[in-house]
Each structure stands twice: as C-alpha cells, then as structure tokens.
Design brief:
alpha+beta, single chain, eight-stranded mixed β-sheet, about 150 residues, 3 helices, globular, about 35% strand
Length: about 150
Amino acid sequence: MHGDLNLVKLCVGVEKVSDLVRWRKARATEAHIKGETYVPHHVTRMWPRRAEELLDGGSLYWVFKGLILARQEIMRLDEVIGADGIRRCGIVFNPCLILTQTHARRPFQGWRYLQKSDAPKDIGPYIEGDEELPGALQAELSALGVL
C-alpha cells in the first residue's frame, strides 16, 4: 500500500504511459552504452520539505495531458549537483509503473503534494504491449465507474 503523502508531477513531452516507458528505455540504452546503470528517476530543483513522509511509502503520480494515469513508488531522494553547482533533488522510483484511475488535473509548475485521500485508486501494473485507451476515453469510463 502506498503512503499517506505523495507527489504529483506533469509528465512533460509525452502523451501516454507507453511514451514514458519508451523514453526510459532509450535512457537505459544510452546509459548501457556508456557502461552505466540506469535508475528511473526525475531531477527537480526543489527538495521536498516533507521528505520523510514521502519516503514512508509515498509515490509520484504522473499527469499526462491533464490526466493522472499512473504512479511510481518513491524509493529514495538523492542529492544531485548540477554542472552549475546547484543542489537539486533526484527522485528515484521503483521501476514498476502502476496504472491509476483517470483523474483530471489542471496544469501547474514543478510538483505538488498529494494526500492519499485525494489520490486516484490503482488499476494495476502497467504491462507493456497492452493497448492503452486514449486519455479522454479513460476519463469518461472512469467518471462512469467502469475504470
């Protein structure tokens, strides 16, 4: 079960969960070519003040084109020092993507906290090759209680 406090973040540049998976596979291939190990993560400028709560089973909920569609468990927060010398937060995820019920979300910058009580329910793990419904159709089916 996931924690009481989570994050929500826009997944910029992709339209659906499979796009994020393809992007990550490309990063993993690039890392492998360099002799490095790829770990699913996202680097953000701000360090969460409520880090301990997030690390107690929290997840990052991904927003695709205005809809929360998936989440990933937050495994740890790593300090990342950029080429500019500025300290940033590397949010490291469990590689397993969990599909969620569709939940509309207005655009915002950065990330926001998301209480467990406000988070969409899980549908199940993302399985590559399963056909994805378009976001608008997912939202309609979710509103009807079908998804």
